[in-house]
């Protein structure tokens, strides 16, 4: 028993730290050591707003829709433009821009006192709602049914159901009405608004314009005067706030360059996309001088090539001169497209005025588009020329052999309006593609090199794999509602049927 | 830095944390052959939740049975010990992990701050955790310590640890971080020591290690939130994911594969392309077993030769270089001669093309030649997105290090007063990839657990080393 060895060691490594704390602090008291100095504990609502506005503007030229409506052509790695394997993730926008806006709304409703430090709370709610509605509109027009009423609730709802597109559209329209009621011209200007600098008059015009464009998108569903689309459209004319009818009111973002590049400049850095021959053919064929600003030269790349285009061919890139500059301005919703929407609604008899008033609006829309791009309209363009409201013939045979048969001919007034809408929406691919699905103008053909052969121009984005991995039952319920019951890119969404 | 189309972005951040610890250790020995050891530790950590401390402890028993056997004089067994231990290991929170703030963007947009809602939602009750570890081992030495063997079986359970569980981004967040999850791992480690030659002028030692992960099972991910699968994209590429699912092993590669018939033969479209199949399991990103052999030789007392070989068997990785390189025709499989002796890049009508063999949708044999550009581009990210062809085998054997050294005679050189030793050696690291199951990349140099992400090739180095002892 003598040989038992007992060893006990105790090490205290506390001394120095305890002394510096003056002796009265507890061992477990670390003061503010765990307060992260790299940020602030509560969000600056103004900074969230700035970030969302940058996100909203940057999303305009998202690539696939620009390919589908043949503004763009993939020059280096044809893939998306051949319509093959197209699955796109929708949910990333929710956890970024949409959530930033939701946090503004949550703060405004939960802590108006804190929120008022960033300007009038009602106006902040209105602006955040409008931005959220705009972004959600561009989302549902790509995928169709998506989570909305149960989305953006964090851990309170991990598996949000997918709302029908019809319900999303109705929510967007009622949200716009609520936003208009919430915008407060008498309140303190909101901070962080890099689009309209807190100008409520302009936000009201934006709200009305957004409602007009959204209402018009339902024209297949509700084609007639007196129906839901027409009455929603009319609301924007009734409140007297006006809409975006001059370029000075455009919903646009002027980029400072540097850390915040004009997205057109950003996209032109990569050599992946050129302007499509389809688009340059249409402009060149009509002698449309907007081409001088919209494209860097006259030569678009053939759309949907089977392999990479010959290297070194100086294909036209997006924008020319100042329009493609790092510190250029991105026009997201312009006077031209809203005036053309008003012209179409008038021509359809949704709103008062008749065809002569519609022509005036159409001419004003096309004129505004030329002004936006800083070009002089060719003589007679709107009077007796290719774009004349009553007799304009548009443009035949655009895009070359890979999309043989494509044309922008215009035998009716509605087709003339639609062709000008396609040009006015450039470079906004989501709008161009959606409007083309709605109107069938221009009459674009799929590339003859589509994979698999015979694949048509997509009518929607397929849900991405994240949806099936993280919200399987909900997305499957949404897929079951798609005509044909499969997650197909050929199925027509609600307003396209 | 300004010579770039995209401006360089700089960021800075400050991280502070503090830790204070109490540690107690007790060892009790009985007659020099039975030992018990216990430790107890309390860590006070600034990153933790109230009460700001976590306790860990361990207890171990060892029994030197050789003393017992060798009581009556020496035997072939020089030393023998069995040991067992159980304990907990700290798995503390990271800096500011439970105290998320809103970071202000480094750049202002025309004088406006830019800020985003963080992508991860943090449970306000998030806290650090402890992992359970159990070990059972035996240590044997024979023939006057000329042969040694060390075997360990271990069992680790990580439970309730802080886990950023991927959630549907429709929630507004990419991940929700809570205390959740349980991963159970068991494994065996073997180490063998040999001293086959030991003479005055030649001393050779060999050390071999071998480790096998027996079990690496995901028991739960987040039961509170009903999350049973974790999936993250590999190389930012939605066509292949690293998946951990409840009831399966951790870290499986899963993605778009080649659809095959019941006999495993690829199904070929009329155009000569593979048919994609979603959610194919490609296997584990972890090897079945790994190991190494280290050889040390001392010749004529002063020359030292060290050879270090390691190996890995089984497991898969994804190669982004392969994925892109194949699709764009940058790799040699899209060039050279085909089995008809004609350059594959020649037109199929001229005898060129890739030889594609498989079956059609009706199980009829397909045997055709396909233009390589079409084949590789459309079978990859330029088409169906198939990732299977870029999933590679991790198996390799590598000569990791070779060094030859000379012990300088410090006494003879008259510097013995200042130096106790001086060794000059020539060292080569990564001199030779002895064997790799799939050629093209060196799987021993992967930077990611999931594979290589267009990384630069590993480098081979040759250097000289002078080691002085004072």
Description of the structure:
Chain A is mainly α and 497 residues long. Helix content of chain A is 43%, strand content 7%. In chain A, helix 2 runs antiparallel to helix 4 and helix 8 packs antiparallel against helix 9. The longest helix of chain A is centred in the first third of the chain and has 23 residues. Chain A is globular and about 85 Å long. Chain A starts with a strand and ends in a 16-residue tail after the last helix. The N terminus of chain A is likely disordered. With 470 residues, chain B is mainly β. Helices cover 4% and strands 51% of the residues of chain B. Chain B has 3 helices and 26 strands. In chain B, strands 1-2-3-4-7-8-11-12-17-18-23-24-26 form a 13-stranded antiparallel beta sheet. In chain B, strands 13-14-15-16 form a 4-stranded antiparallel beta sheet, with no helix packed on it. In chain B, strands 6-10-9 form a 3-stranded mixed beta sheet, with no helix packed on it. In chain B, strand 2 and strand 3 form a beta hairpin. The longest helix of chain B is centred in the C-terminal third of the chain and has 8 residues. At the A-B interface, strand 1, strand 2, helix 2, helix 4 and helix 17 of A face strand 1, strand 5 and helix 3 of B. Strand 1 of chain A pairs antiparallel with strand 1 of chain B.
The total strand number of chain A stands at 10
Outline of chain B: globular
Helix content of chain B: under 10%
Largest beta sheet of chain B: what is the strand line-up?
Answer: 1-2-3-4-7-8-11-12-17-18-23-24-26
Structural class of chain A: mainly alpha
**Ends apart, CA distance between termini of chain B:** 45 Å
